[in-house]
Each structure stands twice: as structure tokens, then as C-alpha cells.
Amino acid sequence: LQIIGYYMQVNLTDGSDHRGCCTQWGVPRRCLDWCRGEAVSSIELCALTYTKPIISCFHEGKERIPGPPRNVRIQLEKDNSVKVLWDSPAKNPDTVELYRVFWRLQGVKQTDKNDTRLTWLNLVGLKENLPYELVVKAGNRDGTSTLTEPLVFTLSDKYIISTSTHSNNPQIGVAVGVVVALILIVCAVVCGVYCLRKRNIIGIKLTGGMRFDNAPFRGNSQAC
């Protein structure tokens, strides 16, 4: 059952939200997160009883439900409103009937939302100097996509002073992390070799038995 659960969590993630179909099949709330590719706490129960309907819903909606919008971004308009823009989904872009945008102040439960058939939406009435976060999803009569990664921004003095979002490709972040780790390791090795050679040079006795051991060099050696 653990193996089945792992397979469900890893492979049944297509960017679409199949919870509507799963609900019609009688999948209980505690297992519904699997229907949008997220982990569940009751792995054994969900895998034992509801694997078949969940997989059926994924196959049923595979060609009909869109994936999430891509490249969500914002720009400032002349009237101090904010324009949210995004690109069409990579999965089933032709099936999109509308997009839904959610936004709220960070840390506040109350969320505003609006629908549009376009790939952009103007947001008005935002407060300055406070951080907002927003997400977007695509949908049609058969279901919706999963939400995009939250985009965070702050409007201040008629400028957007900060924007951030998670990478759409987590492998890029992992690759960058590996490269940085390798660079740090190389730097540590080079520094270690340098310090070792420097200590050896300092320890060499000069002619007459005197040691090259004045304070400035000793201080540098300890710093390494």
C-alpha cells in the first residue's frame, strides 16, 4: 500500500484538479488531495479503497482539464492599479474557458477573487507599503487546474518594489544548489591547501637556526 501511495503521489500530478470528478465517484474528503496530486495523511486507507476511482478521474480529465497558467507577473499601470498577466497553460490550453485570480494581504485569511477570459486582469484599490500575494488557476466546465505558485509583491510610492515567486521548475533550484555547494567545497579545499602550505613555509628554519616567526605572519596563519 505504501508503494501504491508513493506511485499515486509522484505520478498522478498533471497540473489539473480532479477533485470534482473524485467527489462524484464517492472519494472522501480525507483522500481528495490525491485528486490534485498532493499528499494525504491516510495513505493506506486511500490506496486500499480509492485507487481505482482516483486513477479513473485522472485519465478521464487528462485531455479535458487545463494545466495551471505559466509565467505569472505584474506590472504597474498609470492609474496606480496593478495589472496581472500570465501565459496560457502548457497542458490543454485550448480547453480554457476562464481564469480565476485570487489575491490577499499576506497573513490575512480574507481573499478577493475575480474571473476573466483574458490572460490578464487589473487589480484596483490596493494598499501601499503592504505585501500582497496572488495565485491564478485556469478552468472550464469539466474542472480547474491547480493553483500557480504564490507571487508576492508590494506597491510603494507608485512603484512595485518587490516581487517574488517560486520557480516553475524545481529542478533548476536543485541544480543551482548543487553548483553552489560544489563551489563552496572547492573553495574550502583550496583554502585548506593554501593554509597548509603557508604553515609549512612559516615553519622553515632559516640559516643560523632562527625561525621565521614574527607576529604578522603568525596572525595570518591563525586566521586560516
UniProtKB/TrEMBL annotation:
Pfam families: DB, fn3
SUPFAM superfamilies in UniProt: Fibronectin type III
SMART domains reported in the protein's UniProt record: FN3
Segments crossing the lipid bilayer: 172-196
UniProt cross-references to InterPro entries, sorted A to Z: DB, FN3_dom, FN3_sf, Ig-like_fold
CDD domains found in the cross-reference section: FN3
Keywords in alphabetical order: Membrane, Transmembrane, Transmembrane helix
Organism encoding this protein: Daphnia magna
Protein name listed in UniProt: Fibronectin type-III domain-containing protein
